[in-house]
């Protein structure tokens, strides 16, 4: 909100929260009914335009976040945090408002009259009215908004975002948007009154406004020098992202809407406009110090990525009812992503002290890792990512989720054996993950029950517990047999095969069945040691999250959640890679045969660098 919120700051449908699109339900129903009964498709076009504007903006969001994650031609090299993401969740409110205005105009002004598809005179009039009255009025209206009285009550809400994203462009209080609607609506209202309005001019003008708004706030420079060198006057008719970025960093310059001519006329052009444009164009892709390689989990996880829906990626992964309605589109998108993308790509950049940390996505879902046919393809993609990172001089690559599977690549050891001269260090993060689980077990615990697929982390946990005299109860004979092989003779007696479910502490991994969960006693504590959380079935029991740690306050550009983890929480496997890079350790931490990298040492290093255990 603004520093001193003024009258009509809140949107009328704010109390509806995520259900705000219900206000458009009458529009959609009436449009469908009119088309079915009398063949009126103009109302249906309003619905289509609403959908198009949402999709258009979302494409800009994804493209902008991808570009700024790479660092290519980035303008402002500062971070975005959760408070900005939360503040900008209302970006689509103006789409709802505009749709309602157009719909009401159609119903109460035009009535049964139809609008022609195209009129040349109307299109020319729209262009002239925008370049003249609209740009001029907006310029002075914008300058008025920077007066202390209006700025503190309204416009400061928009300027809370120093580092802009495309959707920042339309994040304003309701009253301010009323002013923008009146100004930007002048060309369309005029052509309507003159009888020269057309369907194409309405759609094209609204799309132009959305495009220019999104472009001006995308935080990377995309207009080439040739654009202005071929036609120098365009400098006064089309702004650049760097031009408007200066308005957000300097506040008192570059007030123009889309055409900088009025800033040049009235002397409010920032003196750094040209130099910032040049330096932004010259910025190359950022070279990270460490990379975390992860993959998609469920189908809906596409939208929870930082490149997906900002409002979803800023919260833990969970099912949403409206995503179910998008299932057909989700299936098409997932097919395109997994079938035509043959390499990993960056989707997030974080900073920790002097380190630049990138998160890369391998475009496969968890289900692909279960397929033998996909094994070779996935390994080639991981190997390619490692070798590419090696060329860039990356110090550490951590393998997240199933990218470090024992059957897939032996916890990453396959790549080290194949390329023994690798300078980049491969980290599976098992040491820290094991320590996180061990420190999650309540002090004074005498026995725990173990159930789940036996992994490198599981072996380390069981080994440590048995060495410290804690009984580890195992339900299945085959699991007991495998775990016994990794224990010294002096502590094998602490690994007990049992048929009882009475321990109050359960260490669980993949493979925990519904039946077994139901056998647990009331108030049992489930502590996962696997990459994926168990299904929560018991309301009378307590479930810890998967091994993870709270990141330090000094970590920057944290504006999305890692899968099902909370805000500013990272998986232990990811933290393990970061700690490896921070400490400058020279050894790899991967492979089952290699001894685990001194877990207490990794745990102490994580705490020393500001990471904290989760408290329950």
TrEMBL record:
InterPro entries: CER1-like_C, Fatty_acid_hydroxylase, Sterol_Desaturase_Related. GO terms for cellular component: membrane. Residues 132-268 form the Fatty acid hydroxylase domain. It is a multi-pass membrane protein. Residues 448-613 form the Very-long-chain aldehyde decarbonylase CER1-like C-terminal domain. It comes from the Eukaryota. The chain crosses the membrane at residues 122-141, 178-206. Its main location: membrane. Coiled coil: none annotated. Keywords: Membrane, Transmembrane, Transmembrane helix. It is found in: Membrane. The keyword Transmembrane applies. Belongs to the sterol desaturase family. This is Protein CER1-like 2. It comes from Cardamine amara subsp. amara.
């Amino acid at each position: 909100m603004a520093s001193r919120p003024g009258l009509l700051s809140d949107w009328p449908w704010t109390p509806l929260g995520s259900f705000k699109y219900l206000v458009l339900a009458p529009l959609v129903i009436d449009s469908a009914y009119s088309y079915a009964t009398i063949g009126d498709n103009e109302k249906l076009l309003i619905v289509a335009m609403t959908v198009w504007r949402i999709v258009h903006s979302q494409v800009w969001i994804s493209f902008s976040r991808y570009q700024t994650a790479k660092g290519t031609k980035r303008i402002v090299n500062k971070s975005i945090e959760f408070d900005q993401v939360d503040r900008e969740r209302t970006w689509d409110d103006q789409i709802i408002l505009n749709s309602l205005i157009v719909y009401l105009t159609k119903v109460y002004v035009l009535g049964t009259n139809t609008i022609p598809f195209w009129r040349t005179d109307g299109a020319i009039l729209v262009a002239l009215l925008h370049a003249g009255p609209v740009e001029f009025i907006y310029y002075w209206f914008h300058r008025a908004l920077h007066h202390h009285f209006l700025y503190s009550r309204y416009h400061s809400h928009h300027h809370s975002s120093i580092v802009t994203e495309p959707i920042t462009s339309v994040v304003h209080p309701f009253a301010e948007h009323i002013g923008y609607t009146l100004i930007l609506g002048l060309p369309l209202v005029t052509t309507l009154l003159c009888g020269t309005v057309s369907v194409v001019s309405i759609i094209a003008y609204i799309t132009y406004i959305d495009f220019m708004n999104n472009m001006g706030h995308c935080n990377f420079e995309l207009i080439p020098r040739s654009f202005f060198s071929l036609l120098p006057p365009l400098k006064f008719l089309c702004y650049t992202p760097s031009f408007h970025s200066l308005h957000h960093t300097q506040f008192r310059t570059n007030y123009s809407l889309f055409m900088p001519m009025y800033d040049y006329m009235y002397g409010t052009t920032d003196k750094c406009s040209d130099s910032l444009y040049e330096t932004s164009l010259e910025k190359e892709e950022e070279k990270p110090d460490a990379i975390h390689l992860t993959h998609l989990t469920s189908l809906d996880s596409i939208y929870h990525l930082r490149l997906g829906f900002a409002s979803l990626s800023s919260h833990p992964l969970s099912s949403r009812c409206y995503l179910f309605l998008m299932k057909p589109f989700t299936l098409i998108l997932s097919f395109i992503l997994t079938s035509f993308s043959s390499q990993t790509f960056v989707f997030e950049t974080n900073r920790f002290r002097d380190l630049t940390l990138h998160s890369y996505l391998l475009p496969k879902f968890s289900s692909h890792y279960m397929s033998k046919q996909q094994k070779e393809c996935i390994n080639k993609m991981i190997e390619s990512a490692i070798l590419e990172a090696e060329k860039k001089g990356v110090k550490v690559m951590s393998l997240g989720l199933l990218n470090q599977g024992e059957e897939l690549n032996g916890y990453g050891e396959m790549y080290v054996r194949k390329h023994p001269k690798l300078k980049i260090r491969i980290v599976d993060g098992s040491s820290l993950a094991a320590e996180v689980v061990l420190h999650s077990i309540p002090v004074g615990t005498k026995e725990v029950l173990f159930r789940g697929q036996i992994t490198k982390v599981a072996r380390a946990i069981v080994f440590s517990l048995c060495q410290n005299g804690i009984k580890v109860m195992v339900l299945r004979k085959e699991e007991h047999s495998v775990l016994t092989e990794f224990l010294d003779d002096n502590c094998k007696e602490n690994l007990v095969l049992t048929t009882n479910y009475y321990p109050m502490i359960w260490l669980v991994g993949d493979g925990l069945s519904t039946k077994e969960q139901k056998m647990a006693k009331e108030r049992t504590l489930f502590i996962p040691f696997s990459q994926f959380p168990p299904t929560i079935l018991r309301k009378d029991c307590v479930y810890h999250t998967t091994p993870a740690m709270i990141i330090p306050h000094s970590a920057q550009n944290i504006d999305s959640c890692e899968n099902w983890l909370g805000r500013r929480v990272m998986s232990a496997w990811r933290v393990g890679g970061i700690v490896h890079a921070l400490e400058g350790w020279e050894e790899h931490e991967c492979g089952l045969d290699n001894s685990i990298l001194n877990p207490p040492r990794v745990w102490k290093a994580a705490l020393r660098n500001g990471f904290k255990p989760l408290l329950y």
